[in-house]
């Protein structure tokens, strides 16, 4: 729409003025735009560009792409330079080594490193529990079991099988191991007991004892620091004294019907400082109580018979913590029994069935805490399992079935309420924490060469565990902090 505007000019005439066009200007007015809205997405549409404008845009983007490629090349060159730092010259290295700042740093750091290297414990252990989460997978590989010592004597250990282990209650660094006969040395004594010392780094035994029958069980006589008790395959009980210069027993029981005539796999000193007895049990089911001052005859003797007809061939015995009257025994047929020394129910009391093979090891819960778990005990067997029991139930509470060979021995930790150790015929040492996992061991390690492990014994402090193998070697392993006593775990056990 256009409008012409005329500007009038004034013309004069005779006595009359006239209007005329002087200038014409053309002005364009845009049409009225009607704006409407709808519920669809109100997105402005890009205006259509002409071909010339598109070509101009392409020309403008080409140099930008070139700039981006140049920037990428610069970044790559920068990264390559950062990945390969410049090698210092010998002169520059010497300058740094002799600088005052480096000498101060090195002097301070070396002291810290020397302290750390001298420590046996893990200085990086996190007590907040993060290590348990971070290393949960590593524990299966034995990260909490570290090798410490190996005890082996070329003459007395070679070609002999370790039959029993025991730590001294008076001197925690002393460990005794009993050995079977050496078939390749018929002129050597059949039975050997060696006392090893953990305190010093010497490789020879502290004491060497022997007798004429293979020693199948051994133990330090509690309350008698100088005495060592051994049970033999012939049925004799022998007593060694470290105050004597003799390697042979200072006392021994007679081979008579009044004492044992079958292998004695169980020797245990129970009682108090002023009233204690030596309790022994043989595979013919006879239990005897002795005074260590006189081994000529037992103070009392009892036949372990179930239902007054079935003799019990005992392979292991254990007393609950603080109890000198009641005890549990394992048998060759795989049955476990509870028994008493005195009272109206003296002898075998109850029968516990669950194992499908001979019981090889038995251990009662021994950790002292606010909750009484003395009714719990564990057993190992030729049926490849470890079973958890309670004297309140005649069936197993749980069966641990992670082994693929005979499980030869088992023992509760003396300080940790939920921890026990087990060894098998494939050279494997397992630590089971009931509060952690019951399907797989908390920590496990296989001994070098995978020999059969016959015995396992915890040190009294619960930080070392000793295992004996079929080749006469005693292995000492340090237990990581994750398996030390934790008061909070006592309340977590629900058995």
Automatic annotation (TrEMBL):
Compartment(s) where it occurs, according to its Swiss-Prot or TrEMBL record: Cytoplasm, Cytoskeleton
Chain intervals with Basic and acidic residues compositional bias: 61-70, 78-93
Region of interest (Disordered), ranges: 41-93
Keyword Isomerase (UniProt): no
InterPro entries membership: DYNC1I1/DYNC1I2, Dynein_IC, WD40/YVTN_repeat-like_dom_sf, WD40_repeat_dom_sf, WD40_rpt
SUPFAM superfamilies: WD40 repeat-like (SSF50978)
Pfam family, one: WD40
Keywords: Cytoplasm, Cytoskeleton, Repeat, WD repeat
GO molecular function: dynein heavy chain binding; dynein light chain binding
Major site of localization recorded for this protein: cytoplasm
UniProt feature, compositional bias: Acidic residues: 51-60
GO BP: any one term: transport along microtubule
Gene Ontology cellular-component terms listed: cytoplasmic dynein complex
WD repeat spans: 352-399
Similarity field: Belongs to the dynein intermediate chain family.
Protein name in the entry: Dynein cytoplasmic 1 intermediate chain 1
């Amino acid at each position: 729409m256009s409008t012409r505007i005329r500007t009038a000019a004034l013309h004069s005439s005779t006595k009359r003025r006239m209007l005329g066009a002087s200038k014409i200007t053309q002005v364009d007015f845009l049409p009225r735009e009607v704006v409407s809205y709808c519920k669809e997405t109100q997105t402005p549409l890009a205006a259509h560009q002409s071909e010339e404008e598109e070509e101009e845009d392409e020309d403008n983007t080409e140099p930008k792409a070139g700039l981006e490629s140049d920037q990428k090349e610069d970044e790559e060159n920068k990264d390559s330079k950062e990945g390969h730092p410049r090698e210092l010259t010998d002169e520059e290295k010497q300058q740094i080594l002799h600088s005052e700042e480096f000498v101060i740093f090195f002097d301070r750091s070396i002291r810290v490193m020397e302290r750390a290297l001298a420590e046996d414990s893990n200085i990086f252990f996190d007590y907040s529990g993060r290590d348990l989460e971070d290393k949960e997978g590593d524990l299966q590989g034995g990260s909490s079991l570290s090798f410490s010592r190996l005890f082996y004597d070329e003459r007395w250990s070679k070609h002999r099988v370790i039959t029993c282990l025991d730590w001294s209650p008076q001197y925690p660094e002393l460990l005794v191991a009993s050995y079977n006969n050496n078939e390749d040395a018929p002129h050597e004594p059949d039975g050997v007991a060696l006392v090893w010392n953990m305190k010093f780094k010497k490789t020879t035994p502290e004491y060497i004892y022997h007798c004429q029958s293979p020693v199948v069980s051994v133990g330090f006589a509690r309350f008698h620091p100088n005495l060592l008790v051994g049970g033999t395959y012939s049925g004799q009980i022998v007593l060694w004294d470290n105050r004597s210069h003799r390697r042979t027993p200072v006392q021994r029981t007679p081979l008579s019907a009044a004492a044992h005539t079958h292998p004695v796999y169980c020797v245990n000193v129970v009682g108090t400082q002023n009233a204690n007895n030596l309790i022994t049990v043989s595979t013919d089911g006879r239990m005897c109580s002795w005074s260590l001052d006189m081994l000529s005859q037992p103070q009392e003797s009892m036949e372990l018979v179930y239902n007054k007809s079935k003799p019990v061939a005992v392979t292991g015995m254990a007393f609950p913590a603080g109890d000198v009257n009641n005890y549990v025994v394992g048998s060759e047929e795989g049955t476990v029994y509870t028994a008493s020394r005195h009272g109206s129910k003296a002898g075998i009391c109850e029968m516990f069935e669950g194992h499908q093979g001979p019981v090889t090891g038995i251990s009662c819960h021994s950790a002292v805490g606010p909750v009484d778990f003395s009714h719990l005990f564990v057993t190992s067997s030729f049926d490849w399992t470890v079973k958890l029991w309670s004297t309140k139930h005649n069936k197993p509470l749980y069966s641990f079935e992670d082994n693929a060979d005979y499980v030869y021995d088992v023992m509760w930790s003396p300080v940790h309420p939920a921890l026990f150790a087990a060894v098998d015929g494939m050279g494997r040492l397992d630590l089971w924490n009931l509060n952690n996992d019951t399907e797989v061991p908390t920590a496990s390690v296989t001994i070098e060469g995978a020999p059969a492990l016959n015995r396992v014994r915890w040190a009294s402090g619960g930080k070392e565990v000793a295992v004996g193998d079929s080749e006469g070697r005693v292995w000492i392993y340090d237990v990581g902090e994750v398996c030390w006593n934790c008061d909070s775990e006592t309340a977590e056990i629900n058995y």
